[in-house]
Amino acid sequence: MKRKFTKLALAMGLSLSVVSVASAANFKDFDNFYWAKPAVDKLVAEGIVSGYKDGTFRPGKQVSRAEFVTMANKAFGKFNENAIVDFSDVHKYQWFYQQVASAYQAGYVTGYQGKFAPNKPITRFEAAVMMARLLELDVTKVDTAQKLDDFNQIPVWAVGSVSALVDKKVMKGYTDNTFRGAKYITRAEAAVLIEQARAYLYGKLK
């Protein structure tokens, strides 16, 4: 049975310098990202993502690991103001400390070698692993991933997650049947991934 997550309302946006707008249609720079508009509309309406003060959304901008967990925490109700973490590169005076600590306590991030690399852009591989953990998917099977043309380029630590998410249609490969997991995720792509994951969670994924 899929777990039910509580909805979370937070004032802080994906960036400290952003403000909310009503719809993706209001953004000045959304013409080439029509495919992400439905997802962005929903997440903006719920305060999960926001636009910038200049009226842009910057859909093609890369998303940092700290920004991604902030978005995920809001979308899945994982924020915990009492959570703590001891990554050597995440400190209490930084805006993302509580977000990273919440993600760590929720169990969907682990970091590596005692660090989290909060400002590093997040890859499709990394996002897949986090999302598979959030959705509590079975990552022991790799048969779906084996059908991808770049299967041999998927690292061991990500292959089960990629396979599960592609199988459940939460993430998709490209038209050339590759996953391109080392590619950094953009703001538009992150919004679509989050919304697809929520649709799966609530049994509404088409």
UniProtKB/TrEMBL annotation:
Alphabetically ordered keywords of this record: Signal
Signal peptide coordinates: 1-24
UniProt-listed InterPro entries: Cell_Envelope_Struct_Comp, SLH_dom
Domain SLH: 23-86, 87-145, 148-206
Superkingdom, natural source: Bacteria
Pfam families in the record: SLH
PANTHER family for the chain: OUTER MEMBRANE PROTEIN ALPHA-RELATED (PTHR43308), S-LAYER PROTEIN _ PEPTIDOGLYCAN ENDO-BETA-N-ACETYLGLUCOSAMINIDASE (PTHR43308:SF5)
Name of the protein this chain belongs to: S-layer homology domain-containing protein
Organism: Aneurinibacillus thermoaerophilus
Source taxonomy: Bacteria, Bacillati, Bacillota, Bacilli, Bacillales
